[in-house]
Specification:
This is Endonuclease MutS2. One of its GO terms (biological process) is mismatch repair. The strands form seven sheets. The chain has a six-stranded mixed beta sheet, sandwiched between helices. The chain is an alpha/beta fold. A hairpin with a 2-residue loop joins strand 1 and strand 2.
Length: 787
Amino acid sequence: MNTKSLKVLEYYKIKDKIKEYTHTTAGKDIIEKLEPYTNMYEVREHLQETNEALLLLSKKGSAPFEGIYDVRDAISRASKGACLMPTQLLRIAQMLRCARLFQNYVGSKGGETSRVLEDICIGIVPIKKLEDEIFIAIIGDDEISDRASSLLFNLRKSLKEKNSSVKEKVNSLVRSNAKYLQESLYTIRGDRYVIPVKIEHKSSVPGIVHDQSSSGATLFIEPMSLVNLNNEIKEIMLKEKAEVERILAELSYKIYENINIVDSNANIVWELDFIFAKAKYAIEINAIIPSVNDEGVIDIIEARHPLIDPKVVVPSNIYLGRGFTSLVITGPNTGGKTVTLKTVGLIQLMAMSGILIPARDGSVVSFFNEIFADIGDEQSIEQSLSTFSSHMTNIVNIIEKADKKTLALFDELGAGTDPTEGAALAVSILENLRSRGTKVVATTHYSELKGYALKTTGVENASVEFNVDTLSPTYRLIIGVPGKSNAFEISKRLGLPDYIIKNARENISSETLEFEELVQSLQEKSIKAEKDARTAEGLKLEASKLKDKYQEKLYKLENIRENAMYEAQREAKMLVRNAKEESDVILKNMRELEKLGFPSEARQMLEEERMKIKDKLESLDKHVQKNNEDLGEKLKTVKEGQEVYLPSLDQKVIVISKPDSRGEVQVQAGIMKINVKVDDLRKSKVTQEEKKKAKINKRELKLNLRNVSTSVDLRGMDAQEAVYTVDKYLDDAYLGGLKEVTIIHGKGTGVLRNTITDMLKRHGHSKAYRLGNYGEGGSGVTVVELK
């Protein structure tokens, strides 16, 4: 991607915004190197990873980045076998802990999977043993724990005892030599205990002089009776220092032994830091994940420029690539034409870089090999280039490289020269690019380009709306209608006399006036048609989602019933088999007893018991057979593509071949293809009785939905449970025809309220929402207006 377009479209400002959300310099460095990806697969994967991170943040809260630092320098030193400082070791351990915690954070437990993030985290290799050893040994940036080794514990214990002894001794010396001392206290010089002796009494306190006061009146003397004790303390301190160095060297060596794992884990953590920074930025701008195609189709719903204050930015619906490949935008100055142009380009660059875009769900972007932008006045005094020359230099470069995989953006195409020649040149440039299949968005003031767009296939007019009543632009983009000058209306409202305006009208041809009136009429109709089409599309999408949702629920209910019947059948078979085995054993024992000899009456009684057992087993067999028939009718014939039930797998399968000579067919069960006998297959259908029950249930559902409560209470729930409850409640309320509902979350810390607010931003049934007013519950409730 050419750097000029990235600069002109302010792509680097977006990267600076994302950097604010990283935890490490390594994450910032990845963002610094970020550029639009060069193939559609990468674009989709990186958009997906950002969306997965966004969902995890909304469901599970903050990612486990606590205490993380950029430890690339420490890892580099460890890879060379160097001994690391306590701070470096501690930060590496914190990085390893962060990597290990991410495996649990990203992993799914029965919920939606984070496919891309889970694939990234597969590369994480936990080395908790090393992590724990470091945390046990080091308790601060420069503090080694007594538990680091038994020797260190013993040395520090001994040092404490020696210090206690020497303090007692030196205090005794201070008291006995008080008359010779400057002050009745002791001090330390060079790790050795000394007392401050007046210089005139130095001979009265025999010992080693270690220091002298700045005035020269005091000597710091180590009494001879303390020398041995101080030597012992010094010796223990040297041993302690050596033990600390040994512990640090040992831990550093263990990192060296696992350097590949440590380095790999660190790189994954930096990548995750980068991904979650994108996700946090997406939350800030209320962004969504768009669909991506390589056909040049762009359809961005309610696009917002990410660098404009969300409170004042005006959303625009921008689309091209289906019915037309070139869009010509006209309208007054300061009306928002250039902002629209930059919004298209910047949103495309963001999406191609794996950054979610500020728009509504259902938006579509395209993958382009190049995006060119000729925007702004770039006249150069040094190069003696006028505004026109500067623009033309850029356009020459675009003409040389543009193809059907290119998006070209032109601001005031053909401006800066004679209007007649400029308009003709602009038309020629647009026509050339259109013939190549290049996707073009251009702004202009030339009326000739409006006519060109009206009569040329594949080129469409657009305009930025202007409110004549307020004499100000609305900044809304209207596609399908060329811009109207509104010069007469504006002049009239500003007080220009009517006779001057009338004279001006007479100087314009009737065809031109009719054209302007036609433009105004088209504009009004287009606004209404676009609004109706978007509303219809949204309702259609919601209806489709609801249909799919309830069809899936019905299908699951049918499967549950069939599974339950099959389980009962299998259990019954097992009982019969066990009963038969037990009866065989009993009969065998009875025959053995007969051989020993019994009277005729005993033999008759045995025979009667034998017949009872036989009758009972036959009855069980018949019962099992009857239950087996309940699973479905046996199939006499089958055909390819037929859905049938296979009891042995307890699931529905699709027949994909005709029966062979052995009476077997091949069936598709999920991703498996297996051969089974036709006799083992059962007809899978819903009975008339179940159909009646389903109708009754639907009627009951409608009746129940009419009685849906106008509020739902979430107090006492955690965030995940609350989101699930509200989602289900909004579905019921929507189907029940409620227009406004109240969600009671309480005031508390505000966490539950924020979670619900984030959910409502993206929920399909939410039209608008607000905190409760006085008398409604205030900030303890959120009132939602449903679509």
